[in-house]
Amino acid sequence: MVNEFVFWAIAAITVIPSLSLLFAKKAVHVAMSVVMVMVGLAVSYILLAAPFLGMVQIVVYTGAVMMLFLFVLMLVGVDQLEDLKETIPGVRWIGIAAAVGIGALVITAASRITIGLQNPPNGNPEAISGQIFGRWVVVMETLGFLLVTAAVGALVLSHAPRLVPRHTQREVARDRIRVGANPVSRPMPGVYARHNALDTPALDPQGNPVEESVSRVLEVRNQMHDSEEFHAHLEKGEDQ
Amino acid sequence: MAFVYLSAVLFSIGAAAVLLRRNAIVAFMGVELMLNAANLAFVAFSRIFGIVDGQVMAFFVMVVAAAEVVVGLAIIVALYRTRQSISLDVPAELKG
Predict the structure, then answer these.
(1) Whole-structure pTM over 0.90, yes or no?
(2) How confident is the model at residue A240 (pLDDT cuts 50, 70, 90)?
(3) By 3-state DSSP, what share of chain B in percent is helix, strand and coil, each rounded to 5?
(4) Residue A172: CB partners within 8 Å, gap ≥ 6?
(5) Is the dihedral of CA A214, B77, A85, B96 positive or negative?
(6) d(Cα A84, Cα A157) in Å, to the nearest integer?
(7) Is residue A2 a part of any domain in this protein?
(8) Of A101, A99, A88, A90, whose CA–CA distance to A22 is shortest?
């Protein structure tokens, strides 16, 4: 059907990254390797005389679906760790056995049949559109309804009703003063004459770093710069 | 036929990911991998039989998968908003 070397190359760039679904710890790494799998599948579609589907695969999967996954990962926080406690005892071995069983079943069933290879079909957009808008036009229209329903459903699901009235700026300032918090807004992180970075704390008039000027996320991840060098330079300047 | 075997391998990896992983997004990517493996089988058989029908079916599967991703990710975001977690084990409150 296709060159053997090309097939094994495609098998390698689809199976090896897809194993990260089982072994990678971070969801971002999984998403990037699934993008790799999708590209490998697109190449195999083009080799299997389906150039239209290959292009659709790249546009829809690597372009839209996996980017949607990455957006949601950014939304829910990339630091979601997985707890390895088993809620159902032995579920890991049942899962492995079920997956291996499905694979073995399909492979043995497929190896028992022999089909004579025919001439390659015409996978051009014209041939596909003749089928989609001819024989399968009702399915096509139904899928249109499905897509509209999915879009509306996503809007409804991600809509959060406002349960408490919105605080105005005046109320926020009044509450800050009432609990004795710092009434003014916090300083921006490190903006210096020769350095500009979100991870470097601002310096107060005495030259001490203001820790709360840096985003709390960077502080939790221990990615905060200590701004010591800028502190030292400031004092040296005062001495001169 | 080699591509049919490849699709079987990919399908079982996706199924294992759905069954084993607790991170909702990773399990969802396993579902996507299973759909793609089915698509690969469709396209491979379309090539073997020399008919374009398998490619049309694979196209329809892609559309359904896109709709499913939109709704599924919206559910994950709604889950995260109420639980601050996307672990699949957390929503077990209905358990008796």
Answers:
(1) no
(2) very low
(3) 80, 0, 20
(4) none
(5) positive
(6) 29
(7) yes
(8) A99
Q: Please tell me the least confidently modeled range out of A20-29, A94-103, A118-127, B32-41.
A: A118-127
Boundaries of domain holding B42: 2-83
- State the nearest Cα–Cα gap between A164 and chain B, in angstroms: 16
Domain boundary at A43, A78, A113, which?
A78
Q: Do B3 and A122 touch (CB under 8 A)?
A: no
- Put simply, the answer to whether B43 touches A61 (Cβ < 8 Å) is no
CATH number of the domain residue A1 falls in: 1.20.120.1200
Query: Which residues between 127 and 166 in chain A have a beta carbon less than 8 angstroms from any beta carbon of chain B?
Result: 127-128, 131-132, 136, 139, 143, 146-147, 149-151, 153-154, 157-158, 160
Contact check, Cβ <8 Å, B85/A80: yes
Percent of chain B with pLDDT over 90: 60
Q: Domain span at residue A3?
A: 1-78
The CATH number given to whatever domain includes residue B23 is 1.10.287.3510
**Residue in B with minimal Cα distance to A49:** B47
Structural domain includes residue A100: no
The total number of structural domains that make up chain A: 2
Query: Could you report the predicted ipTM of this complex, rounded to two decimals?
Result: 0.90
Under the phi-then-psi rule, with left for phi > 0, alpha for psi from -120 to 50, and beta for the rest, what region is A115? beta
The total domain count for chain B is 1
What are the backbone dihedrals phi and psi of residue A219, each rounded to the nearest 5 degrees, phi first? -65, -40
